[in-house]
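Here is a protein:
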Amino acid sequence: MDQIERIHLASLRILEEVGVELLDERALKLMSAVGAEVDWSDKRARMPRELVMSAVAKAPSWFTVHGRNPRRHVEIGGGAMALAPVGGPSMVSSLDGGRRPGTFADQVNFIKLTHGSRLLDITYRCVEAHDLPAASRHLDFLLAAMLYSDKPLGAMSLDAVAAVDALKMAGMLLGGMDRLRDAPAVLAGVNVDSPLRFSKETLETILAFASLRQPLKITPFVSTGVMSPVTPAGALTQQNAELLAGVAIAELAGPGTPVLYGSFGTRADMRTATPVFGGPGGVMMEVAAGQLARRYHLPHRGMGLVTSSPCVDSQAAMDKMNCLWGLSLSNVDLLLHAAGWLEGGLTASYEQFALDLEMLEYMERFQGGLKVDDNALAFDAIAQVGPGGNYLMADHTLACHREFAGISPLLETRPWDVWQSAGAPSMLQRAHDLWTDKLNQYLQPPLDPGLEEALREFVTRRKREIEAN
């Protein structure tokens, strides 16, 4: 029996004998109705393996998330790695503004930067807007994401109220709630409260999205020795059990609901019990999680370019490159937190956002492989230049250098004296200049004025209702 199969069987044993805690009565009733053993006193459901696996089998192996611009639709699970920026930090940092609580202006800036990036496929809430009321600020983000970008929308940290609002606004954007069933438009992210607990908010979101077959990425967060066993195999087994339980609930509530196999495993610093991001242990678990996702024919959500570093420095670069190489080799279908993550996910950094995109650009080129055709073999150029010649001004070089010898806007390659005469800009300064230039170049995608007015009216009405309640 191979290692992946042993983890699979051990996960099913956890679900049968230990069970998971479901802090939502509807979810408990759903599990009880299909044959799970429910202990109502401690809200625990024990799930027979046949029930779990028959439910998981209903999830599709790939799906498409629709943007309001058809050219922006994103296929997830079809072989290419979709990318999304950092999601959820409370703080924001920049070279000129320092580290501070996030604002709505920061939120909009990151939406615009995401929209303008060729590499990023999905719009996320990159930072919290602490200058807006907590109960209704999800509405401000949803409206901003729909106004300032035409890419597909990702939503996270939802409860029942926010989940329904996101679905209704997506329905308005795409032409009606009925269309959502056939054209998934909002990718919701939920987390398991490891070990083995699903919060009421998580279950409310799963049930709401599954009712319309909107895609979900369900992600346990395991930190070895704190929120899971200290051994990587034990942590993977618990994570896998939690994930299978979440997929089963989604499929029982809405058969055919697209679900991503989310993985986010780290080791803990046992001196402080804090998670350590970007090290080899977490990357190794990520690769194994990709193998488990393929075993269940589920698309795989990877943990992202993560780091524990509190600032843009060499540690952040090392951690993120460790992640990037491991994730690129583990067939990840969606890479969340692909750009901007700092400080264990507490901070979204503008400069780190620019640097991460540059690393992703390099990885894209590497994965594209070596091009070998008549033009690339360049026989005519070799014959033209001849022995002892120089290709700098050759016709072939002038015609092809932009494709084969691109210049990074961030990496310094000039001689020392030229760099000094230009003011000796650091990598951090160059990253700052790059993201500010990108923001200044932003062009807002057009939106039908009637639809924009309808969305604004919906947000205004919902804010009044939320405030009244």
